[in-house]
Amino acid sequence: MGSLTQSSKRSITGEDISSLKSLLSSTNATVLTPQDEAYGTSIKRWSSAAQKPAGVVVVPTNADEVASVVKYATDHGIDLAVKGGGHSTAGVSSTDGGLLIDLNSKMRHVDVDLDKKLFIIQGGAAWGDVDQAGVKHGLATVGGTVADTGVGGLTLGGGYGWLSGQKGLAIDNLVECTIVLATGEIKKASEQENPDLFWALQGAGQNFGVVTEFVLKAYDQGDVFAGMLIYPPTPEIIEKVVAATNDLYTPDANGKTKVAGRGAGGIAFARPPPAEGKVMLMAVIIYFGTEAEAKEKYKALYDIGPVVDTTAMVSYPVINTILAPPIGLRASMKGTSFTMPIRAGFVEDVLREYTKFTDGNDDTGISLVLWEVYDPNQVVAHDEVGSFANRGWHLNGMICPIWTKQEHDQACRQWARDMTALFKTELEAQAKTTGTGVDGGVGLRGKKGATMLYGNYDQYDEKSRDIFGENYPRLQQLKARYDPTNMFNKLFGVTPLA
Q1: 405 and 268 housed in the same domain
Q2: Of 34, 435, 441, 453, which is least surrounded by CB within 10 A?
Q3: Same domain, residue pair 185 and 303
Q4: Per-residue pLDDT at 451
Q5: Three-class SS of residue 67?
Q6: Is residue 498 one of the residues assigned to a domain?
Q7: Which residues of the chain have pLDDT under 50?
Q8: What is the model's pLDDT at position 469?
Q9: Is 291 inside a domain boundary?
Q10: What pLDDT score does 435 carry?
Q11: Within 10 Å of residue 131's Cβ, how many Cβ atoms?
């Protein structure tokens, strides 16, 4: 079973629309059809290539309304999709002709419990909502590195963020979920209540229901030193930037890095606006400390002489906007992986391929290739938390073609595949154990037998067993208990155990 699962459920009929309107007539939920003005907003996605025409949209305001809709879809075998942030570039928050539950429109409130230091987050919130609620109280949590990413999708798939070097994944900071099951039952899941379901939600959560509320730990957080250093991508500069990055982020024999969990960021190729269309090398810096500390820690990168320097002390929400591409274009965020140290020659190989691709198609100019770097110590330390099977000392790469015209869909996705194959070849050259073909994907194999690829990024060819590894059989058992008819099957679907 691949990352995108073909649904055997049916589409919406006119009779369904009438039934849903009747079912929800005494509630505050809204039923939208293609004729309604608000329908277009509900089916809109971060990537327009992931947008599909739902047969009907229901915009709920609470968990009870969600429960009524989910039960109706289950009882009638209707294809069901759930929109949290709508950020999935794989289209898994959309349905072609089925029933869409849009949590994002009216269920995105964030409460802050200052006494317990907790965020109570509705299922349709984006990370920007959490960031803004937290900064008022000097608080933050591990969340998406792009503010318009939905809390739900990112958390249920594991959840890397700029704070992962200090606090692990989002699921390592998850305290409780309120979830609507396929039957319409509403359950709480935590370490104390329904712990098996809670374990499943921590990494494979998109398979088990609609989470209408997340409770996450909150931490004291002040301003952060962050921004980008931009350089012309000459071989000499590439070698120096890669050497400085390796020095900061390569773990020593004891698993310690020089940034000690306080630094994160990456190196990337892009054509940023200040460069007027030229390909540039970017070093992204996120440092949880003072400006003086950061300037000393990253001195080698400053000494290279960037042509643009946007680094400054900023409020926490700002760091989750630094790498945010425009909303509404066509895009794919294809995941790959790499290990430290990075080889400068490989970075030059990627530069050649990026330049050839973007030079050859003027519709792809704001595409991006990114090596994400951080200190993975805390992610590895929480190895037994949840069903997420992809922890390790590897780091995430992202191939992000961005374009505007539908006729370029196939070429852009193929380029992303070709680039991930290049990353795989590099891993093999380092004598790392990678997957093979569709069964193994293009990432490292970890100790839990999973491919070391981040499931929240697009993985076109990987199977669910690749992503969940040795956790897959237990997930199948839980799937049989909580979703035996496989209503929730859009992304890395888990087949219920017969």
Answers
A1: yes
A2: 34
A3: no
A4: 55
A5: helix
A6: no
A7: 1-4, 434-443, 458-460
A8: 86
A9: yes
A10: 45
A11: 24
* pLDDT at res. 275: 83
Query: 356: domain range?
Result: 224-465
Number of H helices, E strands in the chain: 17, 21
Question: Which residues sit opposite 228 in a β-bridge?
Answer: 284
**For position 92, what pLDDT does the model report?**
82
CA distance 212 to 61: 10
Last residue of a domain, one of 102, 126, 143: 102
456-478 pLDDT tens trace? 554 445 577 888 889 999 999 99
Shared domain for 87 and 145, answered yes or no, is no
pTM: 0.92
* Strand ranges, E, within 79-180: 80-83, 99-102, 110-113, 118-122, 139-140, 174-180
What CATH code is carried by the domain that includes residue 423?
Answer: 3.40.462.20
Q: What is the pLDDT of residue 326?
A: 80
Q: Which of 95, 98, 126, 132 lies closest to 112 in space, CA to CA?
A: 132
Q: 147-206, pLDDT tens digit by residue?
A: 999 999 999 999 999 999 999 999 999 999 999 999 999 999 999 999 999 999 999 999
**424 with 446, same domain?**
yes
| Residue at 444 is within a domain | yes
Q: Mapping DSSP to helix (H, G, I), strand (E, B) and coil, where does residue 402 land?
A: strand
Beta strands 99-102 and 80-83: pairing type?
parallel
Same domain, 288 and 241: yes
Per-residue buried b or exposed e for 452-479, using 16+ beta carbons within 10 Å of the residue's own CB = bbbbbbbbbbbbbbbbbbebbebbbebb
Q: What is the CATH number of the domain that holds 154?
A: 3.30.465.10
Beta carbons within 8 Å of 286's beta carbon, 6+ residues apart: 162, 224, 225, 226, 263, 264, 265, 319, 322
Q: How far apart are CA 21 and CA 99, in angstroms?
A: 13
Rounded (10°) angle between helices 344-359 and 409-429: 170
Whether 138 and 237 share a structural domain = no
pLDDT computed for residue 437 by the predictor: 35
Q: Is residue 5 part of a domain?
A: no
Q: How many domains does the chain have?
A: 3
Output helix, strand, coil percentages for the chain, rounded to the nearest 5: 35, 20, 45
One domain, residues 92 and 153 = no
Residue 22 near residue 41, CB atoms below 8 Å: no
Domain boundary among 68, 102, 136: 102
Give the distance, in angstroms, between the CA of residue 179 and the centroid of all CA atoms in the same chain: 20
